[in-house]
Amino acid sequence: MKKLLLIVFFALLGSALFLEYKRLTIKPWPATHFEDVVEHFKYGSIGAEVDGFPYAIWRELPTIFAGELPQGYAGFGFLGEEGRDLPIGVSVRRIGVDRVGFNCATCHVSTYEIDGARHLVLGAPNNALDIQAYIRFLTGAAQDPRLTPDAVIEAAEANGRPLGWFDRLVLRRVVFPRLAEEVATLEARLAWMDGRPPHGPGRTDAGNFWRERWGLNPSGDSRVGVVDFPSVWNQRLRTDGWFHWDGNNRSLDERNISAALAGGAADWLLERRSIERVSDWLMAFPSPDWPLPLDTDRVAQGRAIYEREGCDTCHDPGGPSLGQVTSLAILGTDPQRTDLFDAEMVSYFSDVGEKYSWRFHNYRTTDGYANMPLDGIWMRAPYLHNGSVPTLADLLSPPDMRPVAFFRGCTVLDTDRVGFTCETGFELDTTLTGNGNGGHLWGTDLPDAEKALLLDYLKSL
């Protein structure tokens, strides 16, 4: 009898220990909370670590692949801060093992350079961040013969963060055996990218991400939904209008949640309180001021031209068309993004979150693009929904005089033409599908002197 009781006891103990092991290694650990909302915006979790790259490997990749990453992850446009191990916009959370993920700041913190000094701007579109190139590097590195457990262990030792015996065991027996499967899954999910023009820095294609999620086989066609990262400051100015570039949703919550899901968050792990906390903070977070002195008389003359040409109707708070959609028949810009979000897409969006309180209800189709406020417009280059026009001066030029190709991804401020000076980097070809730079003809027929005054006013916004 005693022997039977011992057998039962150890069986129960074994089961308990196994369940505890599963809890500790599979169940997500609580996300790191930052008391300071700015720090939370930059480093907090939105729930996007669930399929993230294992942190123990990720942090050593710049050492193992030093030839490919001479600048580390900054080479992809990630921004770093003194005293921080992680780039802005990257969070870490234990889900089985520590994993990295994106958050709101990944795409919405940027920099500009003037007189050799770099300035960080929260809420700005990160026009230098090439997420597509970063993902392709990770998938390639995971399959490179140079990436081995020994290489990670040696790199960690060289970087002053040696792994203990248990971490080494987990790395060899758990992390690496699963890495190939995880990367193969990621590659399959992103195969549609190969049949389309590259995104380049500061742009993404969330539309085809959703189509892949729903099994709509974006790899079987060449439809493009690429758009520029938007700014996220002064969100209160936008709450009476429609969100996303094509104005396909009027709910701020749905806009935020859909962005989180497109950024890698899982429905079941979505950090809603974190997202709402950041969203509340951004409601009144101000746009940046133009960094150089402005001539107030020229600004006033520029404002008069702005009003005379009717720009305030679409772009000023209180304007009757602010936040509303202007039809492509009038606007004339590249149609690919709005064409992608058709009735079929909208029908699938109605099922997103069906098991949760935040289920989507506000998606719609449109026939154009939404009129945005111009706050901080000087820090939002390149321009149009697809970032196909490098400067405001170019946007005020007729389409046949706009650059057919130009470099993206630089941060040196062009104080005359209002944009970023870029002589190397990723070259955007506006003749490729989804990259068209036509349309938005307002102001293109003004005399050069009036265009210069209008630019001075736009700098002041």
TrEMBL record:
InterPro entries referenced in this protein's UniProt entry, alphabetically: Cyt_c-like_dom, Cyt_c-like_dom_sf, Cytochrome_c_Peroxidase/MauG
Gene3D superfamilies: Cytochrome c-like domain
Keyword set includes RNA-binding: no
Pfam families, sorted: RoxA-like_Cyt-c (PF21419)
Keywords: Heme, Iron, Metal-binding
Example GO molecular function: heme binding
Presence of the UniProt keyword Metal-binding in the record: yes
Domain Cytochrome c: 297-461
PANTHER family the UniProt entry points to: BLR7738 PROTEIN (PTHR30600:SF9), CYTOCHROME C PEROXIDASE-RELATED (PTHR30600)
Protein name in the entry: Membrane protein
Organism encoding this protein: Mameliella alba
